[in-house]
C-alpha cells in the first residue's frame, strides 16, 4: 500500500497514475471488521479506537482514489468498494449476528479478521514472487 505521501502526489497531480486502489479498499474492510470485533469484546475499546481511526483514514484514501481515478478505474473501484465494504461486511455482520451463538461470534470474527490481515500482509510478497518468476522465465 502506498504511503500517505502518495496521496499528496495524487491530489497534487489530480491523477492516480498507475496506483491500484484495491489495497485501500481491502484495508478499509479489514479495519471495519476489526472494529466489529472490538465491539463484540467486553474490553475492546482499544481495538475499536485504533480501527475506527484507521477506517476513517482508509475511507478518505478510497474516496480520494476514486475522485482522481480514470473513469474505467473509478467504476471498477466503486464496484469493488461496494461489494467488499458494503456487501461483504454487511453479510458477515448479519450472518455472525443471526446464525452464531454469542460465545462463538467473537471467535469466528477474530479468525476472519486475522486471516484477512494475514492475506493483506502477504499480498506484497506474492507480487514480488510473481515479478521474480517473470524475470527468471
TrEMBL record:
Pfam families: MtN3_slv. GO terms for molecular function: sugar transmembrane transporter activity. InterPro entries: SWEET, SWEET_rpt. It is a multi-pass membrane protein. The chain crosses the membrane at residues 21-39, 45-68, 80-98, 104-122. Its main location: membrane. GO terms for cellular component: endomembrane system; membrane. The keyword Ribonucleoprotein does not apply. Signal peptide: none annotated. PANTHER family: BIDIRECTIONAL SUGAR TRANSPORTER SWEET16, RAG1-ACTIVATING PROTEIN 1. Belongs to the SWEET sugar transporter family. This is Bidirectional sugar transporter SWEET. It comes from Papaver somniferum (Opium poppy). The lineage of its organism: Eukaryota, Viridiplantae, Streptophyta, Embryophyta, Tracheophyta.
Amino acid at each position: 500500500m502506498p504511503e500517505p505521501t502518495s496521496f499528496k502526489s495524487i491530489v497534487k497531480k489530480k491523477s492516480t497514475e498507475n496506483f491500484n486502489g484495491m489495497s485501500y479498499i481491502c484495508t478499509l474492510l479489514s479495519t471495519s471488521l476489526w472494529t466489529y470485533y472490538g465491539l463484540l469484546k467486553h474490553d475492546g475499546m482499544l481495538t475499536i479506537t485504533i480501527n475506527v481511526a484507521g477506517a476513517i483514514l482508509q475511507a478518505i484514501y478510497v474516496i480520494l482514489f476514486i475522485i482522481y481515478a480514470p473513469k474505467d478505474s473509478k467504476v471498477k473501484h466503486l464496484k469493488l468498494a461496494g461489494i467488499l465494504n458494503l456487501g461483504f461486511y454487511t453479510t458477515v455482520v448479519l450472518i455472525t449476528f443471526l446464525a452464531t451463538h454469542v460465545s462463538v461470534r467473537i471467535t469466528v470474527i477474530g479468525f476472519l479478521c486475522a486471516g484477512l490481515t494475514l492475506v493483506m500482509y502477504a499480498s506484497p510478497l506474492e507480487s514480488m514472487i510473481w515479478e521474480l518468476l517473470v524475470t527468471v522465465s
